[in-house]
Amino acid sequence: MSKTALVTGASSGIGRAIAIRLAREDYKIIVHYNSNLKGAEKTLSEVSKISKHAHHLLQFDSSNYEQVETALKDIEVDVLINNAGFHKDAPALLMDNASFQKVIETNLYGAFYLSKLCGKKMLLKRAGSIVNIASLAGQTGNPGQANYAASKAGLIALTKTMAMELGSRGIRVNAVAPGFIETEMITEVPGLEAMKKRIPLGRFGTANEVAGTVAFLVSEDAGYITGHTVSVNGGLFPT
Question: Choosing from 27, 109, 148, 224, which is the catalytic residue?
């Protein structure tokens, strides 16, 4: 019997790659989006080409608990991928409060809301897997990204804590921390060529490589792994 995976922020980039990879692993995919309907429809089209399962779209603002609760009311998932993310950069002392709050609410609160609501249903089956998409910034900090780095560091701590709380119920919780990955977001980073020279593997990663790591973590092969953060950064920050 096929399992169902909800991938948040699946309209593009890493989220789309994860949805496609899990479709190849025979999951029914729920493609979440907030505002990028066109991108979500493209992802849905891609996963529908891979398998004949009834994949579908789901819209909500992950930072809004009421929207999340309503959207998930009649939905049960075996796998939850908390990928939805947002960044609005500025030096910490110049960052406006609204920018700090919005990034924290989307990246951290959203993952908490989804994990809480999906996790309660997983408890009834005593099975499930949650993977949070963190970031290298959450492990090292990053100038100009106090809000983003704080949200991702919080996500790593949330991962560890929920893994401890849910492990006895058969639910595993892990995180993946991508470094510099070739997506639309990376084009906004200054000094890319200089950064590439610092990476031991000498290149940026791909969204497919992140997706492959996620696919492993939700698989039976990773059945004894929980509370772990897997760094996918080409050796830039060895862990």
Answer: 148
